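Possible race condition, two jobs.
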Amino acid sequence: MASDLVASWKAEIIRRWAQAGDTKNLLKPYSIGKSKSALQQFAKDGRSMITGDSNLSTAVLGSHTAQYQILRANSRGIQARITIENSMTMSSFAHVVTGYGTRADKFVQSFDHDGIVATEIVTPRPMMTSHHMTITFRVTVPN
């Protein structure tokens, strides 16, 4: 709730509501691969994990999509629900070594969903498939 990312979402929600009357929409997706080099991102995320600073949740969550829905709006502000969608795969943890969108990254990704590691030959239940998570919370944005 105290991360820089949520602060930017709050500003985006209030701006969209004030300018266009939007009550429900997608928020700007967060992609680690587009923000910095893999090594810089790893250093920033590691620092957040060690210090527990306000960006810890973003460091742990990684790349994701988000949307909002305004639940209440009046002269004092807005109450909105934010829903975050995130899938974690084996390659999610390999980006520090492989980078993003490289040949090595694509090779590791080939094992995530239906590759050799995830087949039923290895285990009755695939172990390396992606894990999807949904996080929903409410924020209040004062006018």
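Job #2 (started ~2 s after job #1):
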Amino acid sequence: MTDTSFWTHPPETAVRSSHSDEYTITVLDPPLPESTSELPAHDRARARAFAEAFPTVDAVLEELPPMSASEGLYAERLSDLDLITVGCWGNVTCISDPALAAYDAGMTPVLAGVAALHERYPTALIVGSAAPDFGETHTEDVIRLPDGPTLFAAGFPAYETPWYVEGDPHTILKALGIDLAELTDEDREYLYLDEKPHRTNWGMLGGLVLERSGRRLRSGLEKSVFRVRHTDMYTSLMEEMWRWTH
């Protein structure tokens, strides 16, 4: 442990590579915008407040220059896992945090993060997804409606079992006014909702819900980048999962 983190290994320790930004939670406050709505500019002050209150974060240590909303971060060493991004564009808030990919030891960080945010934003639609790939991809996806049902799915897409699914995706789609029969073939691809869970791309379902509910990022939008100290528990989980061992 140092003054700036709870890591037990040096911050330059190599980590296993994973695709960038595949661990996000998005909050859409009402009213959901129409399909033609353009999201406003990023609110940096609100982004910092959101980061400081996020359940995986012990403290925000530094605010770095903002980056394009369409770009992602890439982790090569432990210190890179201290970086998170937060975009606040009107009624849309999106956080990307490597701690959301710490699924080891039976943890469900995306589900826990969504539940915590629901307490703060009870009238919001909240969608979370994590898909770390360290040789085998593990996915965790959550869609929570305001004062309504929750869909939770987690497992390894390469295997039929074990999979954990709670909630009915058809109920979620119906509540949002999304009719599968009216979707394009591209939208329906990999949405085998009535078959075994490993065949469905749950992250794609969450993305469809977000796009149909108003999260349409336009060019020129930015998001904040923060260096944080994650909580002791999440730091330990990330170190165990991400650290490269020979």
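Strands lie at 23-28, 57-68, 83-89, 92-96, 125-130, 139-144, 150-155, 163-166, 222-230.
Logs attached separately.
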